Amino acid sequence: MPKKSRRAKAKRRAAANLAKKRPIERVPIRPATPESKASVPSVQSSLSSVQTTRYQYVLPELRRIGIIAGALLLILIVLTFILG
């Protein structure tokens, strides 16, 4: 079997380093007040950046799945013209 690529190892190391350096911030749930509504977007943006770094692999995987699905669909269409 071929060895794992160094690129994949580097990505895992970088993700592990980010996880160690930046712990997930837990925000206590409070009743909604006019003052707390102003602070909600900043909390969402910080959570959004954590989610972005945590799920970096999703978009490349979806792109890869889409390419494979498109190729298979194209093969099926070509086969229907050849065999049909």
Report what the structure shows:
The longest helix has 26 residues. 0% of the residues are buried. This protein has 84 residues and is an all-alpha fold. The two termini are 40 Å apart. It has 3 helices and no strands. The chain has a domain of 38 residues.
Radius of gyration: 22 Å
Helix percent reads: over 70%
Low-confidence segments = none
In total, how many beta strands? 0
Q: How many distinct helices?
A: 3
Shape verdict: elongated
Structural class determined from secondary elements: mainly alpha
β-sheet strand percentage: under 5%
* Main sheet overview: none
Mean pLDDT: 78
Distance between the termini: 40 Å
**Order of SSEs, N→C?**
HHH
Throw out a few tags for this protein.
84 residues, mainly alpha, elongated
Write the layout of secondary structure elements.
Layout: H1 6-21, H2 34-54, H3 58-83
Short synopsis of the structure:
The chain has three helices and no strands. By secondary structure, it is mainly α.
